Amino acid sequence: MKITFRYRLLASYILLIAVPLLVLGALFYRTSLKIITEQAQKNVYEIVKKNNEVMDTKLRIVDQNSMSLFLDKDLFRIFSQLDPANQVELFAADRQVTAVLGKTFSQNQDIYAYQLWTSYFTFGQTLPQGDPVQSDIYDLARQAGGKLVWIPTYDFVSMFNQPYLQDGNLEFRYLFSATRVLDFTYLSNTKLEKMDAGVERPVLAISFKSEVLKSLYEDSIPGSSRYMVLDPHDKVVASSEPGAIAQTYKEAWLDELQQEKSGARRMTLDGEAVIVCFDRSEVTGWMSVVWIPEAGLVSSFVPVIRASITVMAVVMGIVALILAFFIAGKITKPIKRLLSAMRSVGEGDFQTRVDVVSNDEFGILTQRFNRMNDRIHLLVTENYETKLKEKEAEIQALNMQMHPHFLYNTLNVMNWTAIENDQQELSKMLVCLSNMLHYTSRKTWGAVPLSEEMNWMNNYFYIMSIRFEDKFTVEYDMDPRLFEYDVPRLLFQPFVENAILHGFDQTESGGIIGIRGWINGRTRHYEVADNGRGMSQATVNAILHQKASSVGIKNTIDRIQMTYGGEYGISIFSSPGKGTKVAITLPL
């Protein structure tokens, strides 16, 4: 089915509108996503920091209240005079200790239990702990002396070795605690009284339900977010995943966060792009981490963007149709007249003329068309002559293109040599380079005697052998008769360069480059072979047939074929691990 110009013009208008619309829509979406993501990252990070500040404030109050017990007169008296063997005294002391602890901690709604532990009795609120002195909490408190120690969330059953509670529905199953040894003192008439050295110092244990942290985060972060509070050893204090609480959570990305104090970053977790915000508590050293999927932030905006783009596309599409039909009529009529005249010219009638009916671009085009017919015969002749000159210029351009390619590589090699060898060989290398520059900077780029080409190659090999510390040697086997004939300048250069830079790039020593030449009938044959790493047939095909590959080799092939004809040129034989051989054929 033939599509007319009118309909193609119409299609082009629609395309010109659709493409910018799609691009703008994509940019609008990406910009919106970026802005929302950045703002959400800032907001979530601030929430995490504020939550930590709130929790640190509460925990500092607990720390201050516990420190006030050091100077409590009643507790000093009770534990200084208490007889651990007298059960009546113990129960009476328990009532007094519980009252003191209640006065200190009962106003704090976050505290679940407060107790004083000794090896002979547990004072304060009663929990089924068995002997708490056998727990890790008690040991950590003793090791810390009078310093407050924060114990991350633990399983009550495991911590206090109460297996009979394993299957029970305990409201205190997961707790985290603060504990310290209380060494009571008492100020009496400006004199500081201390407890006797033989009196056992009790351990204060203040326990919190893990739900304290859960309510703090779940009420403040977005619904699609997840959170986790970890101690420095990756033990989970609180989490949006209940099964992870009191477990060790090891992930590589969390290890990175543990190295820092606070921050926010974008990551990909389980194939999903997320925003991760984290902050470390100054009181406990625990790290709060919140991560939220980026997709959830913009899900509500996608329908709005899609609807606005669709409406805009429909409106602009209708406008495009109206404009296309109107403009097409103005354009296609003069084009049809020109097409009819061109058809006549195509059949050989160069006397065809088109009437000029306007002064616009189509009128100018018609005038140009009429002038073209007047000069067509002359242009055919000039075109033939121009083609001949273009071929000569193309050969010259290809020859000149070789110059910067190898010169850059050579200068780069000399630079590395000067740096690595402390300029010890620089003098002789500069002499060689001077000879090379003199050879390549001649005004004429025609063929040169083989002896000059070989002399240039010797200078090049010297520089390269210094650069690569004698990792290769060069062997010549040239028929003396070949020195009677000229060769294209830099005929061998791209092949020996590839052998040194690519063939021997994985070789420390033992590289061999062989340059041979012989005459067979009316044909000269040259060969450049190396024992380097070789290359695949696909690479060989790319070098020979793709313009983007190996500019030097392609230029050499083109120069040979433009100078001597398409039957002469270059063949490459190579396979991985078996070296490379380049065969060059030229006429006598």
From TrEMBL:
It is a multi-pass membrane protein. It is found in: Cell membrane. Keywords: Cell membrane, Membrane, Phosphoprotein, Transferase, Transmembrane, Transmembrane helix. The chain crosses the membrane at residues 7-29, 307-328. Residues 329-381 form the HAMP domain. The keyword Chloroplast does not apply. The keyword Metal-binding does not apply. SMART domains: HAMP (SM00304). It holds the Pfam family His_kinase. This is HAMP domain-containing protein.
